[in-house]
Amino acid sequence: MEESNLKTEILEGRKFGGTPEGIAILVDVFRSTSSIPILLARGAEYIIPTKTVKEARELKKKIPDALLVGERYGFKIRKFDYGNTPAMIWTKDLAHKVIIFTSTNGTMVLKKITGAKAVYTSSFINHSATCEKVKDAEKVQIFVSGRPDGKAEEDEIYANFLAAQLQGKDVDPAKVMDKVEKCSGARRLKIMGFTEDIEASLRLNSV
């Protein structure tokens, strides 16, 4: 793989309080930035991210045909159509549907980085597509979503993998995904009953 002059920086999204420089990429492997590309791949017309549940419900009143998708602290929100679960979303026909989406970590950080030149969401699901989209950029800032109680190991692992590939370094994705499969975030999902979401989030370049 040819080396690149593209500059990358990995930042903790929850702690970020400035203005993004250049292109921003949001990483929330478990599970927002895995669910978002799947929602689009399953036919969603577009996605409206919201920071709060209240905002999502208010938007639903204005767009009655929209679907409410999201979670708080991992679990589907009361009266929402679907949770933030990639495994489940893969099974849905969302053709021409508008999605109102909110999550504990991902959409909160997303709202903080909207001032960037361009904003992308990335995970293993759309990894190559992300790399292709930003390959000619001068600088890319990668924002890891983390968790309310600290860092999310899976986001750190993927962000470093993404940064390395953007810089033209040869990294074995299978080894990276193996680390994610064994990390604390994966163990947490298993305990919560979302084991299928681990496999669904590790389908490399599936959209």
From TrEMBL:
InterPro entries: ComB-like, ComB-like_sf
Assigned EC number: 3.1.3.71
Keywords: Hydrolase, Magnesium
MF GO annotations: 2-phosphosulfolactate phosphatase activity; magnesium ion binding; sulfopyruvate decarboxylase activity
Catalytic activity field: (2R)-O-phospho-3-sulfolactate + H2O = (2R)-3-sulfolactate + phosphate
Pfam family, one: 2-ph_phosp
Cofactor(s) in the UniProt record: Mg(2+)
Family: Belongs to the ComB family.
This protein's name: 2-phosphosulfolactate phosphatase
Lineage: unclassified sequences, metagenomes, ecological metagenomes
